[in-house]
Amino acid sequence: MKHAKLITGIIGIVLGGIIAFLIPTPQGLSHAGMVVLASIVTANIFWIFNVLPSFITGLLMLCSWVLLGAVDFPTSFNIFSTTTMWIIIGGLALGTAATKTGLINRMALKIMSYLPANFRGQSLALMLAGTIISPMIPSAHPKAAMSTPIAEGISDALSYEPKGKGSSGLFMAAIWGFIVMEASFLSATAQNYAFKGLIPTKYQNVLTWGNWFLLMLPWTIIALVLGYWLLNFLFKPKNDQPVSKDFIHQKLEAMGPMSNQEKITAAVILVAIIFWILGSAIKLEAAITALIGVCILTATKVLTPADFKNRLSWDTIIFIGTVMALGNVMKTVGLTTWLYKILQPLINPILSNIWITVIVLPIVIYLCKFVVVSLISTGTLIVLCLLPFFSTMSFNPALLILIITASVNIWMLNYMDAPVITGQAAVQGKMVSKSGLAKSSLGYMVINILGLLLCVPVWTLMGLV
Predict the structure, then answer these.
(1) Which of 214, 248, 293, 464 is 20 to 30 A off residue 391, Cα-Cα?
(2) How far, in Å, CA of 440 to CA of 24, rounded?
(3) Those residues with Cβ within 8 angstroms of residue 103's Cβ, 6 or more apart along the chain or in another chain
(4) Rounded Cα–Cα distance for residues 331 and 432 (Å)
């Protein structure tokens, strides 16, 4: 429909206006709360139907709070001065350096060179390479765009038919390693920081880099082991005989010896990860570590001013910031307390027991993904709905962030996962079939819940349940 976005946008604005100014303010909620509620409804309609670029919608939402008197400017835009925003900026800059210098490509190809050149060996290589590389690049789209052409080259070298079982399986191995395994590490994607930033500071402090890794370790093992088994079960060709690794060796030879810029980048990222792990023990903010690393890379000319202008995804950074502002503002205007009273009968049973939560909440998220395409928007909506219940839960609410970040990444249908769309675009849609997407996503949905269930004993041992 030619004017669908315009019509949807008008509907969103009209609906927001009705909520803010025509519906009587319910008991227990202020007019400021109604304004914020109206802006959330309008913004989500805009995000779901892509009426405007996501970051523009987010900025308009924050501006509307100030213009309509819900909160003042410092409260509305406070998130942009927090450490969370700066760790996102610093982390994305580190990832930019790793991609620009070719370090990530070299690591992936090197890992592949050690394993047999057949489906079993190279699917495992792609999954392991992605898992190892994930914490270095906090952005899914560059990883999808970089990894899937490598998978395509391997598929061609193995003479797999486009969109056949072998080709589909290698594509999904790249997605599994480089995208799915992002849930294992706090620094693997900016959305992890975004979801973390939505919750109160006392719960954020639980989710340090090291704690996140330990809390998700059982999930990581299950996701890798069962994921590898699933992809081989679904996609392994009948005659899976090893062939020459010439493709991989040619790529490595074309890259030449490791450059000084690669070595500097590798050293900076390695030190940064070490300090992120030790952050709580040595009282060093993760943002400071990331920003010092960026300064070193800039001083050594690995990164240039042009890189900051052209390679950093500033629209994504701004969008994440506007989404993260919601939690604090909702609490300020009393919207969280009011929502608690409204949603209590529906949500209390889900949060009554951690075992029930790790089964039911992912299923709710899966269903939401059929409507709300954006991973960050889906996670944000879920967090905002659960935020009013944090004080009454029987387990630490920080665990909800782990459940959410592991559950939003599904790709049953083409439109449901933007990084998968990026990966398909990078290979001109020639690798994976629709049935291959659907089957692997369904398998992941089951594996994800199994992995989360196995995390519960670890969460209990760490005193969070």
Answers:
(1) 214
(2) 48
(3) 97, 262, 265, 266
(4) 44
Quick check: 378 and 369 in contact, CB under 8 A? Answer: yes
- Which of 60, 46, 57 lies closest to 10, judged by CA? 46
How far apart (Å, rounded) are the C-alpha atoms in residues 287 and 56?
25
Distance between CA atoms of residues 229 and 62, nearest Å: 46
**Total domains, the chain:** 2
* Cα–Cα dist 409/441, whole Å: 9
Q: Which two tokens stand for residue 285?
A: 């903010």
Name the residue with tokens 């307390």.
Answer: 337
The model's confidence at residue 2, banded by pLDDT at 50, 70 and 90, is: low
Residues 93 and 212 in one domain: yes
Q: Which domain holds residue 121?
A: 83-310
Compute the Cα dihedral for 200, 95, 110, 231 and give only its sign.
positive
Distance CA 59, CA 40 (A): 12
The string of pLDDT tens digits covering residues 329-382 is: 888 898 888 888 888 888 888 898 999 999 999 999 998 887 666 788 788 888
CA 261 to chain centre: 28
Measured CA to CA, the distance from residue 51 to residue 74 in angstroms comes to 27
pLDDT for residue 280: 67
In a domain, 465, yes or no: no
**Distance spanning both ends of the chain, measured CA to CA:** 50
The model's pTM is: 0.81
Name which of 213, 405, 201, 217 is nearest 285 in CA terms: 201
Whole-number Å distance between alpha carbons of 199 and 464: 16
- Token pair, residue 180, equals 């799915």
Residue with tokens 């996609």: 235
Q: What is the pLDDT of residues 218-234, one digit of tens each?
A: 999 999 999 999 999 99
- The answer to whether residues 137 and 99 touch, using CB atoms and an 8 Å cutoff, is yes
* Residue 303 resides in a domain: yes
Calpha distance 238→186 (Å, rounded): 38
Closest residue by Cα to residue 139 from 416, 376, 336, 299: 376
Which of the listed residues 23, 49, 76 is the one where a domain comes to its end? 76
Query: What is the amino acid identity at position 169?
Result: G
Q: Which residues of 247-272 are buried (b: 16+ CB within 10 A; e: fewer)?
A: bbeebbeeeeeeeebbebbbebbeeb
Q: Are residues 98 and 71 in the same domain?
A: no
104/211 same-domain check: yes
Q: Please check whether residues 26 and 91 belong to one and the same domain.
A: no
